[in-house]
Amino acid sequence: MMDYTSIGKNIKKYRLERGLRQEALAEMTNLSSNYIGMLERADKLPSLTALINLSNALEVTSDMLLGDLLNESYKIKNSLILDKIAELSEKEQQRIYAVIDTLLECAEK
Fold first, then answer.
1. Residue 77 half-sphere exposure, CB side, CA atoms within 13 Å?
2. Residue 71: what pLDDT?
3. Residue 10: what pLDDT?
4. 3-state SS of 42-76?
5. Closest to 28 measured CA to CA, from 56, 60, 63, 62
6. Consecutive 10-residue runs of the chain (109 residues): their mean pLDDT?
7. What is the pTM of this model?
8. What distance in Å separates the CA atoms of residue 30 and residue 41, rounded to the nearest whole number?
9. In contact, 40 and 8? CB cutoff 8 Å
């Protein structure tokens, strides 16, 4: 059986990143704040319509909400990380890549 708690965690994560309260997100999606809370606690799974509305309101893709459940989740996470790195200065990017190289060397041992 799949563990769907990551959907709720991702909804909450992106809601908080956008500085939204559950009530505001509920209003933006025509859902109740109680329902948003149930989704975030994994008491309920969102319907397809709710998932689309949440994705649009949070300005994220559905795979960002479902990422941990998808077989391609590492590709999705890699893409998100690369997008974040691309926003950094060249010097910061070099630091990040140096750390990654070191971690990869350790993993190979």
1. 10
2. 55
3. 92
4. CCCCCCHHHHHHHHHHHCCCHHHHHHHHCCCHHHH
5. 56
6. 79 96 97 96 93 95 75 67 91 93 86
7. 0.64
8. 19
9. yes
